[in-house]
Predict the structure of Sugar ABC transporter ATP-binding protein.
Amino acid sequence: MSRSDSNSPGQPSVLRLSGIGKRFGSTQALSDVSMEVDGGQAVAVIGENGAGKSTLMKVLAGIVSPDQGTLHLAGKELTWSGPRDAIQAGIALIHQELNLHDNLSVADNLFLGREPSRLGLLDRAELHRQTEIWLQRVGLSVSPDAPVGPLPIASKQLIEIARALSTNARVVIMDEPTSSLSEEESLRLFELIERLRADGVAILYISHRLHEIVRLADRVEVLRDGEHVQTLTKDEINHDAMVRAMVGRDLAKRSGADKNTTEGHPEPRLVVTGLRVGSREAPPVDLQVRGGEVVALVGLVGAGRTEIVETIFGVRDRFGGTIEVDGRPLRGNVREAIDAGMVLVPEDRKRTGLLIESSVGDNATLVSMVREGMFRKRKQERATAADLIRRLRVKTASQEIEIASLSGGNQQKVAFAKWLAGDVKVLMLDEPTRGVDIGAKSEIYEVIDELAGQGIAVLVVSSEMEEVFAIADRVVVIADGRVAGEIPRSELTEEAIMQMAVSKAE
């Protein structure tokens, strides 16, 4: 693979990978991958889920040992026994999957294993001082003493970023760093990346948000099935070129013409009236979703979208109002919601969407196992799992392997698939394609359309405007926990959404 020119031509090559290979059992995760990254340069690594991106980054970060190949940093060959050696060498990884300890404070997470000391004892004052510096740098306003557990995912993502940057690394690997960030938070991160580049730091950037790569990358390296397949120079980087390189074909364009309208839909399957979320003083939420309709809940981060769907599903306490599925009133618990045909695919698949230490097959058939009760039908479960894996094109060597070994996007597919074996009437999806590549997104959108076509009412929380325009028949805008307004597909624009999203209650 040839190295293209850096924006900082005076910088020496910082990181060089030569012939990296890695096999997990019968799966060849990486095969003869080589690349170089210069100081002050941002190189994007893209590919579909399962292409080998995360494995390659774990090799660089010392988490996984390569079976073959060499690594050089500033001309010196690297060998290490774990992540600590990589950090000491100057390589920092910002994980896609949050890797924080919820029972510890922000400060303790930020400097875990690197705590400042004085006379052999923890220097708590210095720990706080350094934590505040790095939190300010990533734009996060939270106390260093705050426990991490209750913080929203976006805050945890910024803590992950701050922790990596606090090592003063020469190479920073960013694996889906904006997957949980708002537009404003993402812009602050981009500004930070530019400052790091000006300081001579090399950036390896992984993202399924291709518009970010167009904005940031000096060069794009494309992986497919564990192999390097193409390099895109700066003037070759555009959305369509990256899609073709990743999936080996052009994806069908989705437009308003591909979507239904609300005309002709039957009666509402989900009816929410006067719902109070969080407290009895909260503004009432009213919404309806008809059979065959896809409704998107949109709004700024912190507007209360997730809280609304979790309250509807029974995960959170309801402080007032009514919820009906096909005219059946729900009292407000998860089991009752499932029995009525309502399901929720949560945003955080690792913590609440999957049994991360169980097999792919067990996760895919989890709902049907619960419904069967004491007596499991193994043959039927395997057949069901095989059908769901095929239907959502989950990349896995076997349904028997642990789901934690799959890429994030394939884990998300399984979290989605487990509900499809049941009799679903209302399907709620919270950020359904977070951390999912563009090819997998297209497949998930097709499944959503298919389910809506079967008469299922679909309610989707999404922060991606492209996604909203691709799937929504109607948009409900949430601002400060209330419904700020609705927009039919025929009138849907980003400007209309933002005007409602920033509106104040009268």
In short: Residues 1-11 have pLDDT under 50 and may be disordered.
